[in-house]
Specification:
alpha/beta, Rossmann fold, 2 domains, five-stranded parallel sheet, 13 helices, about 35% helix, about 15% strand, elongated, binds iron/sulfur cluster
């Protein structure tokens, strides 16, 4: 790639939300080549890794954007234990999350042949990470001063190098600010975008229940792996008396998802076919007592009625050939009230 191409190529920090889509399209409308990168962790976007090609095709077809995924877990999970700028309302380390993402994108600039980066951030839209002073902190800490352009809010912010050098026409950038979504929605019409994602962000660390689970998991475990976090994000969670960790599906979808999260050594439990009930994953347990407690919980949450007491709970250890059954009573609520988290 020659220097001219490089100067007109930007990496986009792509969240999949409307703001990042619009930021890309604004740049593309100026003839800038945009290489979008969506960073994922077990807390946001992780399921896309299993279908990356489909996802890339979809984004290209719907929005004309060239996007790739990067798994940031290796750096993100240790950062989450002690983020330098603290947490938001829940266990969300937004400032450090942004610093990490921007730093990582900066490291990719050479590889992708880009001279600057863009993001869909809007001044004042989020209380913690999109304040004017925080945007500066993020730029400084990531070593990206002058090369991180926020097209939607650029006119409220100092000129960046690509604007100063005339690579990007500042006159065609915008001055969005605050929490209103109206300007963004109005802009979708000029890019013929009629089907766009809702602005939830989808980060599980901002969800109070999940965030509390993750915080507790970090407090109780010195090492944290993506596979554990994925299991932590779904279902009913129980810490069993002999140290086992049980996750029970709450509906058909979660029961199905649990099968995709199994690791060697886990025990998978489910109700016999004739009696509907939840499936479950039992992790970190070898004891018979935990296995029976798990089966009792499955019976507790299985369909009530004639025949429940007799129904069998089937189980199989991942990696073992054989399947076995247990006949246990449903647990009473007072038996497990201290197990749930
Ligand atoms: S909400 Fe989640 S993904 Fe977004 S900046 Fe905060 S920690 Fe990062």
């Amino acid at each position: 790639m020659d220097t001219a191409d490089r100067s007109r190529t930007a990496i986009a920090l792509f969240s999949g939300g409307l703001d990042s889509i619009l930021a890309c399209r604004l740049m593309m409308a100026q003839g800038i080549t945009v290489k979008a990168v969506r960073f994922v962790t077990p807390f946001f976007g992780y399921d896309l890794l299993a279908q990356e090609e489909d996802y890339r095709r979809e984004v290209a077809a719907e929005f004309g954007i060239d996007v790739q995924l990067r798994d940031l877990s290796g750096k993100y999970l240790p950062m989450l234990r002690d983020p330098a700028h603290g947490y938001g309302k829940n266990f969300n380390p937004c400032v450090d999350c942004k610093i990490l993402i921007v730093s990582e994108a900066r490291l990719m600039m050479e590889e992708l042949g880009a001279s600057f980066m863009i993001s869909g951030e809007v001044l004042g839209q989020r209380p913690m990470s999109q304040r004017r002073d925080t945007l500066r902190v993020i730029e400084k800490a990531s070593g990206c001063e002058g090369i991180l352009l926020r097209p939607l809010s650029a006119l409220n912010l100092p000129e960046t190098i690509p604007e100063q050098e005339g690579v990007v026409d500042r006159g065609r950038l915008l001055a969005f600010s605050g929490r209103t979504r109206q300007p963004q929605i109005a802009l979708t019409a000029s890019f013929q975008i009629d089907d766009f994602p809702t602005p939830a962000g989808g980060c599980m660390l901002t969800d109070p229940n999940r965030a509390a689970r993750v915080r507790r998991f970090y407090e109780e475990n010195e090492t944290v792996a993506p596979a554990d976090l994925l299991l932590l994000m779904i279902g009913r969670q129980f810490g069993l008396p002999d140290g086992g960790w049980l996750v029970l599906g709450r509906d058909e979808n979660e029961n199905k998802s649990l099968t995709g999260l199994l690791r060697r050594g886990d025990i998978f439990l489910w109700c016999e076919e004739s009696w509907p009930g939840p499936s479950a994953v039992l992790r970190r347990s070898e004891g018979q007592r935990d296995l029976e407690a798990a089966a009792g919980l499955i019976k507790r949450y299985s369909k009530k009625g004639e025949g429940r007491k007799r129904a069998l709970v089937c189980w199989q250890k991942v990696g073992d050939e054989k399947q076995a059954e247990l006949q246990v009573e449903p647990l009473a609520d007072q038996d497990f009230q201290n197990w749930q988290f």
